[in-house]
Design goal:
Length: 162
């Protein structure tokens, strides 16, 4: 079955792929192909989505992440076509970022959204979507349009406490 939707619901799903869902049914439904791992003792498996450069990862027979290289739609924008500045305007300020080695690559983290953006030369190249990892339950009950404002408040509170 082809994948025709890449709509991201933060911390929950990308298109038809639900985070935390039982993996075998999804693997069968979409005829996902298991990729070989360089780490034989890894406790996760990776499955390629046919016809796409994206894949899902599984742990304990459930979907643990969706790795998007083709597209990632959110609020009428394909996140994978945005610059980092445009992504910040859409998502709010990131919670953490780090350079990757001595290159122009960096990882930008939105833990409360379950999102990692992989950046090269200021442009988003891919994204990893996972369940939200913010310990503050406010993000589970707060409407999406207020998440950015809440993240800013959390950052200010953390800054004052340090």
């Amino acid at each position: 079955m082809p994948v025709d939707s890449w709509e991201w619901i933060p911390g929950k799903s990308v298109g038809p792929f639900q985070l935390g869902a039982e993996a075998n049914a999804v693997i069968d439904r979409f005829a996902l192909r298991k990729l070989e791992t360089a780490y034989p003792n890894a406790d996760s498996d990776t499955y390629e989505i046919p016809g796409h450069e994206s894949w899902i990862s599984t742990e304990d027979d459930t979907i643990s992440s969706i790795n998007c290289w083709d597209r990632l739609d959110y609020k009428n924008a394909d996140i994978l076509t945005l610059s980092l500045d445009e992504a910040r305007a859409l998502l709010g300020p990131e919670e953490e970022s780090e350079p990757l080695g001595e290159t122009a690559l960096m990882a930008v983290y939105y833990h409360s959204l379950g999102l990692t953006l992989w950046i090269e030369d200021g442009w988003i190249k891919s994204a990893t979507c996972e369940e939200c990892s913010n310990a503050d339950p406010i993000f589970q009950i707060l409407p999406e349009n207020l998440w950015g404002k809440a993240m800013q408040s959390e950052k200010r509170r953390a800054f004052r406490n340090n």
